[in-house]
Amino acid sequence: MTIVVDRAVLAHQLFTGVSRHHLACLAQELAEPWQAGVEGRRHEARGGARRRAAGAGARHQLVFMDRLVATLIHLRHDLPHSVLALLFGVDRSTATRAIGEIRRLPAERGCAVPDRPGMRLRTLTDVFAYAQAEGIELRLDATEIQVRRPPAGRGGRRAFVSGKKKQNTMKATVIADHQGRTLWTDALRPGRMHDATAARNEGIAVCFQHFPAVEVLLDDGYLGLRRDHPGQAVTPPRKPNKIALPHVHAAREEARHRHSSKRITVEHALADHKRWKQLTRWTHRREALPDTYRAIAGLVSDRTANV
């Protein structure tokens, strides 16, 4: 039984999660690096230079635009590869290979910069340099995504067990601005790692040293960073003890509320990411999650940067 689905319908925003204009811009931006990657793999497989003229040889069963649409549907709705293969009229292995090829391309783009068309932030240093140049106060937080439990007997199995969620997770560190627009996300770490340790492993201490004018709002999980970088790593005031005077207690709570109100925008950014179904619970290979998260964060940043 063959199912014929209108490709224009599959490219609708309800399926892909991006507008048609955004999809057209993505296709224009990613077509060249995809073609270069395909030719590079073919060159490596041949073991030498091309012997046929450009464009000769077997045609792809899925053209680039179909591959891009299938990958976006997979990211947005987490449809199985077999279902996508049925919708596009190809074999499941073709859909799997296409998604693997395309997913890394948006992951390598980085995050869009608000009101700066064509400029993208790919590293933590880029974010701090941008924040210092524009005088922006950053918000940083971590989120955890449930992943499949590693097989018994495999080394490092306990590294993914989160002490907070009591599940096997991977942790993503995200930076947003005062409007909740995503500026950067890291390479993801095992869920057992502390939030502050994950940030340190990304080199945040070096960034604080080289960009002394940048302030980052953090939650109570980053008290160690506040101790090491006072005035730059800003956490809420400590909760007052039970014997504190009423006016001291009220002042502390008010200060904590003001800090939380300013930092809440990074929580909004994380919520935008979790609207893509693949980030609600990851059921695939753990090594593919970092590219998936960075790809989704980059796509979300494209939309919020133009708001």
Automatic annotation (TrEMBL):
It comes from the Bacteria. InterPro entries: HARBI1_dom, Transposase_HTH_dom. Its cofactor is a divalent metal cation. GO terms for molecular function: metal ion binding. Residues 140-299 form the DDE Tnp4 domain. The keyword DNA damage does not apply. Pfam families: DDE_Tnp_4 (PF13359), HTH_Tnp_4 (PF13613). Keywords: Metal-binding. Residues 61-111 form the Transposase Helix-turn-helix domain. This is Transposase. It comes from Streptomyces nymphaeiformis.
